[in-house]
Amino acid sequence: AGLELKNKKWQLDNTVSGYLGYKNERDQPVVYSVGLKRELKKNALRLQYIHGLHNWEYQTVKFSYLWQWK
Question: The pTM is what?
């Protein structure tokens, strides 16, 4: 499940996802993610935070530079 808000230069996305039986072990990992993207002239910058909530202890922050080949 998720939510995405967007205008001309900014995009905010917020999601929670998961699945049953990862690695056939009856666990139920759940992951929360929030991201912010800023459009530039042809390219974009993106900052994302990912956090494992259930059965998966994980945290990371990603910073990305995106470019288009148009």
Answer: 0.79
